[in-house]
Every structure is written in structure tokens, then in C-alpha cells.
Amino acid sequence: MEYFGINEEKLMKAYPKFNSNMDFYLDRIKTVVEGFKKTFSHKEMRIFSAPGRTEVGGNHTDHQHGCVLAAAVDLDVLAAALPNGTDYINILSEGYEMEKININDLTVKAEEKNTSASLIRGVAAAVVKKGYKIGGFDMYAISNVLKGSGLSSSAAYEVMLGVVMNSLFCNGEITPVEIAQMGQFAENVYFGKMSGLMDQTASSVGSMVSIDFEDTDKPVVKKVDLDLEKYGYSLCIIDTGADHADLSDEYSAIPFEMKEVAKVFGKEYLRQVDEKEFFENIDKVRKECGDRGTLRAIHFFDDNKRAVLEAELIENGDFDKFLSTVTESGYSSFMYLQNVSVCGRIKNQEVALALAVCHKALDGKGAFRVHGGGFAGTIQAFVPNEILDEFKVTMEKAVGEGRCHVLSIRNAGGVELTEAM
Question: Lowest CB count within 10 Å: 108, 294, 301, 392, which one?
């Protein structure tokens, strides 16, 4: 099978719907191939893919060294790359300006904060820090990972950078978990966002994974097999239309307040705090951290356990209980974590409205919850296939046409699709 030199087995793992939508995927590959040739004039290339991810269980638990359940999805960053024999990394992402990074200067740049250049420099620095020698390379990338969707386009980009450098310069010796850690390092130190490790791990490892972050240097990652087709369900991500702009303080307040609760007990993270001791001293916690911080800690304790339970329920084939647990997590996020509505915004409450319509549309079936960081972006629903079309119509009438996305869990994480040269 001739797909621009791509390995057929890798292709099918990356795109579970390939055979039913072949023209779409071949057109994307062709776009990358032609874009790379036009931009850099190389005759040869290697093609890579890194997926977006969906969080299934453990909402805002990872940054407290907790447990999560997450899955790679069939939206991805797709790129062509090749060493260029220079000291420069040159990356053109479709729709953006060319990024040029000198590999001889991998120090943190204040002026690059919150830019893709910082992520490129940060991942390169992390690779070098592991003892590898990298060279310059050219890369052309496209992406259909929805920005601001909670599907983590930034993590997919970070994983793509790690996979490309690992394949081109490190003989593929860096593990998927290590690539995830390098992405988090770049995002935390170079980009300036204090994210947890869930997004990068789910993207890098692939499939559905249960992750325990008690030791973030050595997270315990276990693949979980969930075949939604067997149960007659589909995974939907609904874009609520809410804007992420100016919400950094809202997101940052969650880990900050959780850590403030941990400090009451002389700990750094909530994972280190005994839940029984917390409730025995809840009056002290309220006095020192306020009620919202206390409620957010209660959410952490419960959702941390739910993430583990959800994985167990899938493995035991108790799909109905899994669905009800997902919805419980969503209720907890709304009531205790409070990451659905933005403080002070009364007229526009897009996420809350989408959840309400989703509740009505499902009518007691399936499951639904706020997705990812919350406040804006998306919600998630597990929808019975017999009502999928009607559900999609109902949701898009409320939030806008084309905003209810039906996704598949993909088995491949960050991967080179071509045969290594």
C-alpha cells in the first residue's frame, strides 16, 4: 500500500476511521507532503503524528499528584520533518509565521513566553539535558486539534516536537513517558504555564490510559481497553463557544487554593494529605483557606478516587456504572471544584448552558461532564448511538452549527508514520 512511504499498520493505529474516510486522511497527508516540499525544497521527508487527548476522569487532579483517566483521540498534529545539517530548527505551522531556533542557544527567553518558539526551545533543551546531541531540522505541520477545546493542542505540539527529535537524533531511545515529561518541562519553564502532566502523557502514550502521578518523575501508566462500539456508544466533545481569553487567573486559582489547603497540614500537594485528617480539621481549613478552597479540596479527594474506579469499572465490564461515575465527576466539578462558570460573568454562562442542554438531550442515558480545565472550551458526553444524530442536532441548535464533534479513541500516541531511515 503506497501512502507516501507510510507504514500501513502505524496508519491504522493512528486513524481508526481511516478506511471509512480515506480521502480525508490522504488529503491531510498530501497537504503536509506538499507543504514541506514547497517550504524547504527537500526531496525526502519523514512523517509524524501526535494526537490530541480527552480527559475522562480526574478533573484537576494531576497537578496535585493525583490519578486520572485520559485517552488519545483521532485529531492530531501531522508533520513532515528532516534534518537540515545546520544549527537551526525551522518550523512552519500552517497559518503561522516560520519559527527559527538556534540550537546553540537553548536558554529561557522572557520575550518568548506564551509562544510556540518557547516550546520548541524548551523541548530541545530537555533533549539535550538527557545527554543527546541534536542538530537542526526543518518541519512543516498542520493540526486539526481544536484550539481552546480541552483537547490540548499545546500538548500535542509538544509531543510532536519530542517525537521528531527522538526519531531524528536519539535513535528512538526516549520513552513516551519521558517525551511527555519533556513537554511539561517546556510548558512549565519556557512557555510559563504551570500545567500538570496528564495532557502530554495521554498524547504521548496513546489509547486510554490510567495514570497515577503520585511520583511525577515515575508516573504509573496503565493502558485501559474501552471499546465504545461494543457498548453502542460514541464519544462527543461539544464546543461551548466560550472564550478562553483572560481566564489565566481562574485556572491558576485552582492549584493555588488546593496547595494552600495542603499547607494547612504541612504538605505541598493534596495527594499527601490524609482525607480523614482533612475532615477532622475542616473548621481550621475553612478559617485559613476559605470555603471555596475547602470545597475544591473535597472535589480532589472524591475525583481522585473516581478516576481509579472508572478504570476498574471499564476493566470489569461494568459500563453502566462507569457512565454514572463520569456524570458524578461532572456534578462534583460544577458544585465543588466550581470550574464551570466564571466569577462575575452573569449574562454569558456558555459551559453551564451547554451542560444543561446536554442533560436534557441525554434524558437519563449516557454521561456528560465539563471537560478539561473548565470555565470555557468544551464539555464531554458519552452518547448512545441510537440517539446520536438527534443529540448532535439538539446540541448544535444551542451552541452553534459544527460544534458537536464525534471522536474516536486512537491506539497510537506520538508516532513516526513512515519507516525510520
Answer: 108
CA distance 291 to 219: 31
User: What confidence category does residue 133 fall into, taking pLDDT thresholds of 50, 70 and 90?
Assistant: very high
Amino acid identity for residue 5 in this structure:
G
Record the pTM: 0.88
Longest dimension (CA), the chain: 68
Q: How confident is the model at residue 148 (pLDDT cuts 50, 70, 90)?
A: low
Run of H or E including 236? strand 233-239
* pLDDT (average), residues 7-36: 92
Straight-line distance from the first to the last Cα atom of the chain, in angstroms, rounded to the nearest whole number:
18
The angle subtended at Cα 351 by Cα 113 and Cα 17, nearest 5°, is 80
Phi and psi (nearest 5°) for 216?
-70, -20
In this predicted model, what pLDDT tens digit does every residue of 348-375 receive, in sequence order? 899 999 999 999 999 999 999 998 888 9
C-alpha cell at 359: 442533560
Name the one residue in this structure whose C-alpha cell is 470489569.
Answer: 316
Residue type, 317: G
| Pick from 351, 413, 338, 410: nearest CA to 380 | 351
Asked if 67 and 329 count as a contact pair (C-beta separation under 8 A), the reply is no
Structure letter (DSSP) for residue 270: G
| Nearest of 54, 6, 134 to residue 415 by alpha carbon | 6
Residue 1 confidence class, pLDDT cut points 50, 70, 90: very low
User: Can you list the domains of the chain with their CATH numbers?
Assistant: 8-225+410-416 (3.30.230.10), 228-407 (3.30.70.890)
Gap between the Cα atoms of 398 and 352, Å rounded: 12
